[in-house]
Structures are given as structure tokens and as C-alpha cells.
Amino acid sequence: MNKEAPDDGLELSQGVTLLNLSTESGFYADWKQTYHVDTEQAILNPYPTDTIMPSITRLISTLCARLRLSHTIEFSAIDTLEQFVLKVIAGERGASAGESYLRHMPLYAVSVVNIVSKYFDAHIKLDWNGIQRIFAKYNPGMIWSNRRVMELEFEVLKKLNHKIHHSLLLGAVERFAKDHVLTVGVVRKDHFGKVGVKLLRVVYAHKHFIYKSLRPRVSSEDMFVRFKSNKLILAAAIVMATLRLCGINQQQVVDRVADTLSNECFVEAMNIIFLRDAILNVLN
Q1: Averaged pLDDT for residues 170-174
Q2: Residues whose CB falls within 8 Å of the CB of residue 35, separated by 6 or more in sequence, listed in order
Q3: Spatial separation of the C-alpha atoms in residues 204 and 79, rounded to whole Å
Q4: CB 165 within 8 A of CB 124
Q5: CB 233 within 8 A of CB 272
Q6: In the chain, what are the domain boundaries?
Q7: Cα 75 from chain centroid?
Q8: Which CATH number does 46-160 carry?
Q9: When comparing pLDDT for 49 and 39, which is higher?
Q10: What kind and span of H or E run contains 182?
Q11: Which stretches of 96-245 are DSSP H helices?
Q12: What is the mean pLDDT of residues 81-99?
């Protein structure tokens, strides 16, 4: 993957901002209320975690794959660990304060995966011997013990006020796919799901580069931050990108899905397409 998404040559007139969010009342309705609250909280976060997300995503995804845990647990664990790091950084008043935590990130990853697994299914018991083998292979210098993991679990839960973070991004992707893609009948559910999960991992890990390529096209920093903080729009772009990767290129289908998703997100369809292309660019 390229770390920098290439410029596709699109030029905007001076002063034009294409990435516009609506404040229509529909945005706050029903299930979208949670996403509105999440967007507002993300806007207020002064310490972005973009630079550490590749490590967090790789750690959590590797653990969940080896332990055969669900994608719901995987992506919720990624979100929960990210929120923990944010709490640590904010509490210590600076991004550099999280460096000591980053050195022990593998242990925190195990702790978070264990917490989230129990939250979704109390009967799940992690294979501690398997985890030890993973550490021995990929991080042999890491001092690991069940007791240490339990101590970190308590620390994580305390810092997060015992709140587990569901993956809102996964939830929106699943809902949009069910309501606006699978109903069209152009792609099999299992195929779309497999491609979508792989793409979600890419987006989680490379969100920084995805949005960085779009920043020059927005005249207002405030508008860009609001756009970047909105998981509904990102989910819509992921759905559109997954369609492309599944080989669905019929313009009529693409336009139909883009229009319905734009109505869901209260944003112009072209903005979703721009974000879709930025996602696809990191794969090139």
C-alpha cells in the first residue's frame, strides 16, 4: 500500500467547499442519534490517534484472527483500545504522554480483546497458551503473564469508566449494505461481507492517509474536521468502495446506491464518491 494517496487531478474553484454536512433534523433521528453524538465528541478531541492506528489495527486483527473471534469483537476492540489511548493522552495533557503506553501496546491489546470478548459473550475463554505463543513469535522480549493482563484490564476499565465501545463504523457499514446494496441483488452477501471486512481493516489502519488526500479540497478546516469525524459518511464510502472491489461498475447501480446513501448521510453524493476514491487510492 502506498502511504500517500495520489492526487487524482481534481481541481475546485477557489472558495468552494464540497464536503458539506447538513444540520437537517433527520440527521438526529432514530439510530443516527448515536452517530451524531460520536461526531460531536470526535470534533472536540484535540489528540488524533491516526498515527498509531496501523499498530492498533494490526495487533487486534492478528489476535482476533488467531483466536477465531468475530469481526464484531475485532472492530469493537480496536475502537475500545483507541478510546483508551485517547483517555490516556488527554489525561496526561499531551500526545507524548502516551509513549510509555505504546511500548506496552501488545499487552493492552490482549487485555482489551479479553474485555470485549467477555462483554459480547460471557462464555468466551481466550486461549492463553495460544496468546503466549503469539508473543513468543512476534514479540519475544515482552514480559507476559495472566496476572499482568488482569491488572491492565482493571486499568483499562477504570480509564474508560467501564464503557465498552461498539464499532459504530462496522454497524453503519452493515446497515447500509443490508438496506441499499443487498436489496439491489447485484452481489452475493458472503462475497460483499468478506471484501468489506478486509477493506474495513485498511480504513481503520490508514484513515490518516485517506483523509489527508482530501484536505486540500476543502477551504475550511472546521468543515474538514467535521467531515472526517463523521462515521456515517465514512461507512457510506466504504460501502461504495466495496461495491467497486466486488466488480460492480454499472453506472446505474452505482448512482442508485450513492444517491440513497447520500440521503442517509445528508451529504451530497459526490462527497461520498470523493471519499470512496480516496479509500481505493491507498490500495494502489
Answers
A1: 95
A2: 168, 172, 230, 231, 232
A3: 9
A4: no
A5: yes
A6: 46-160, 168-282
A7: 7
A8: 1.10.472.10
A9: 39
A10: none
A11: 99-103, 105-120, 128-138, 146-159, 168-180, 189-212, 221-228, 231-245
A12: 72
